Amino acid sequence: MSKIHDVAKRANVSIATVSRVVNPGRHKVNPETAEKVRAAVKELNYRPNALARALQMKKSMTIGVIIPDISNHYYAEIVGGIQGVADKAGYNIILQNTDRDPDQIVKSIYLLREKIVDGIIFSGGTINGYEPLSALKELRDRVVVIGRHDVDFPAIMVDNIAGATLAVEHLIELGHSRIGLIGWSENSTTAKDRLSGYKNALAQNSYPYDQSLICQGSLTPESGYNQAKILLSRENRPSAIFAGNDQMAFGAVYAAIEMGLRVPEDLAVIGFDNIPLSSFFVPPLSTIAVPMSELGSDSMETLIGLIAGEQVARIKLHKTKLIVRKSTLSK
Amino acid sequence: MSKIHDVAKRANVSIATVSRVVNPGRHKVNPETAEKVRAAVKELNYRPNALARALQMKKSMTIGVIIPDISNHYYAEIVGGIQGVADKAGYNIILQNTDRDPDQIVKSIYLLREKIVDGIIFSGGTINGYEPLSALKELRDRVVVIGRHDVDFPAIMVDNIAGATLAVEHLIELGHSRIGLIGWSENSTTAKDRLSGYKNALAQNSYPYDQSLICQGSLTPESGYNQAKILLSRENRPSAIFAGNDQMAFGAVYAAIEMGLRVPEDLAVIGFDNIPLSSFFVPPLSTIAVPMSELGSDSMETLIGLIAGEQVARIKLHKTKLIVRKSTLSK
DNA sequence: ATGAAAGCGCTAACAC
DNA sequence: GTGTTAGCGCTTTCAT
Predict the structure, then answer these.
(1) Closest nucleotide over all strands to A116 (CA to C1')
(2) CA–CA separation, A282 vs B180, rounded Å?
(3) CATH code at B205?
(4) CA-CA distance, A95 to B51, in Å (whole number)?
(5) CB contacts < 8 Å between A and B, how many?
């Protein structure tokens, strides 16, 4: 692989001149000389070494993305959104999977710092501890988080409370009063917010909050299935279920059908996320649409602003939308 | 951010010594000195600059992954598999999305070369042209492809022909003779292979190959829905449909139900891929399981072998598996 | 407009 | 066992 030196020799100029034509704009260079250099570049198939350049410029044009798991649809969409704007701006992204493991998270941050990333986008898992925070400190002005984290970085969030309220109010309007909730981990702020929205909607309509209607899955269809089975075999079972995400909603529908209940006639089910398959489910699933890809693109735009030294909003809240399909048709 | 020089000063040693304790193994260093250095490292929160190290060592511990689209489940799983083994081996991955656009592919390769990646894993889209091939040339011994590409790099593949044969033979055993196929682009070797498997199964059972049973979708549920509608409104409609992937199979089931056909009683449907949701579909979808994550991990293992200068297999074929669920129960 | 040379932060000969 | 020094390939003053 040829280096700047080779090109300089070939074009009979100094390496400084080569650098100037390879990075146009900052300095003038004689058009003829430039042409000679460009010819040499082409002949030698020269490509500047980004490592060397980054070392010198203290700018790697690389950003780090820390997520729990890329094979999870939600994060894949986010990363897709990040990629889209990163590409256009000339940034590359280094991916770090953490499985939400605090040690992994800390390790990832250190690793990205070693690789001299220009910034970090963090999503999923928690970042509140002393370790991750102090590790992130050195990049303080170049970090954006997706989701609520109670830390002092610009945050891109989904209005989960409003979304959940939307879902449950929809169910209430349909005439349901006993509404089951399949939530998940108490450690997740997202889960907590969706639960809050559920409670809000009940309170606004003066319905009691009944603990026996609440259970916890783990975001998988399997867990939705299991929890729905439990919920539906109680006496005085709910006539509607609000599942914390579409995956669990699918599991819940499946459980209902297996138990001889019809959806939506005997049980209404609504999910959260609006994954692509939800409209092709049988019955098509009502849900709350979350603009995942936008979360990603917005976070990258924010990071770019941060890197440019701009003032950026402390919080950006993205709206959700109620999508009514067959799984919650009239009671 | 502190540099090796700061640590050296703090510990009252030379930078060479610091380097030696930071990268243990190669050289001996007095335990006491080492301890002093480690203390200084900790106090200054020193982290070696990976860029500088990579520049010197000509090894970045970073590999490039080129795929069409990370928000596609298939590629997300592959990348997940790659990540898993990359992490353990100390590699980071830089992601490049191409949308299968040849220009983007070439650009991605150049970009990764500039970033001095230690290797590249390529999946999806085509790589046969002169441009991408010559761009890849400089990394010749450090490239592995996933899927069939008729190029001289180690390839990790799925036995799509055998898988499709499996699917169609299953349908034939069930008594179906008119079996529709929803395929996709003729440019895709995967699509071609799955079509070949379909033809093989028919031939082995002396069934005719009827062009009117073949149509092309685009891997989305929408397209599966549309194509199934066409197939099912022909007179002498098929009694079974083999869809090129699960997404299209979902669409096909949906179309059938909309047309008043029962699945599997009036129409059997089988997909391909075995995405997680397929077992929670209503009815649960029969399909051919593809070990996507394994494809990723295997490709990374192969690349690591390549980097280590080992001899690696030219081709590794991964087996598929027939998963029978309700969507193809007896005719 | 162009070249010489310093230096980005690190590793690895090579001396001692 | 430890220090000195020469690069890795590039960008960027500073001269000219």
Answers:
(1) C9
(2) 22
(3) 3.40.50.2300
(4) 17
(5) 140
Question: Would A249 be classed as within a structural domain?
Answer: yes
Beta bridge partners of B221: none
User: Where on strand C do bases come within 7 A of a protein Cβ?
Assistant: 1-5, 7-13
Residue type for position B149: H
A49 strand C contact, CB < 7 Å? no
Q: Which of B71, B92, B253 sits opposite A115 (nearest CB)?
A: B92
Whether pLDDT at A127 is above 90: no
Interval B89-108: pLDDT, tens? 999 999 999 999 999 999 99
Gap between the Cα atoms of A117 and B98, Å rounded: 22
Which among B51, B77, B83 is the nearest to A116, CB-wise? B51
The pLDDT, as a whole number, for residue A313 is 95
Phi, psi (deg, nearest 5) at residue B303: -65, -40
pLDDT at B137: 82
Chain B stretch 112-131, residues whose beta carbon is closer than 8 A to a beta carbon of chain A:
113-116
Q: Kindly state whether residue A52 falls inside one of the protein's structural domains.
A: no
Query: Average pLDDT for residues B75-86, to the nearest whole number?
Result: 97
**In the predicted structure, residue B231 carries a pLDDT above the cut 80:** yes
Is the N-terminal amide bond of A264 cis, ω within 30° of 0?
yes
Q: Which residues of B touch A55 (CB under 8 A)?
A: 49, 51-52, 55
Residue of A47, A251, A281 lying closest to B113 (CB–CB): A47
Instruction: Give residue B331's pLDDT band: very low, low, confident or very high (50, 70, 90).
Output: low
**Å from B54 (CA) to D7 (C1')?**
14
The answer on pLDDT for A183 being more than 70 is yes
* Domain identity same for B106 and B205: no
Question: What gap in Å lies between CA B62 and CA B89, rounded to an integer?
Answer: 11
Residues B306 and B199 in one domain: no
Q: With contacts defined as CB-CB under 8 Å, which chain A residues touch B250?
A: 277, 280-281
Specify if A330 maps to a domain: no
Instruction: Give the tens place of pLDDT for each residue, B17-44.
Output: 999 999 998 788 999 999 999 999 999 9
Which residues 208-267 of chain B have a CB within 8 Å of chain A?
A: 220-221, 225, 247, 250-251, 253-254, 257
Residue B138, domain extent: 57-158+292-319
- B279 and B165 together in one domain: yes
Burial of A192 (0-12, 13-18, 19+ CB in 10 A): middle
Residues B236 and B286 in one domain: yes
Looking across all nucleic acid strands, the nucleotide with the smallest C1' to CA distance from residue A19 is D11
- Whether residue B326 is contained in a domain is answered as no
In angstroms, the CA B160 to CA B74 distance is 14
| Average pLDDT rounded to a whole number, residues A304-308 | 96
B295 neighbors B147 (Cβ within 8 angstroms): no
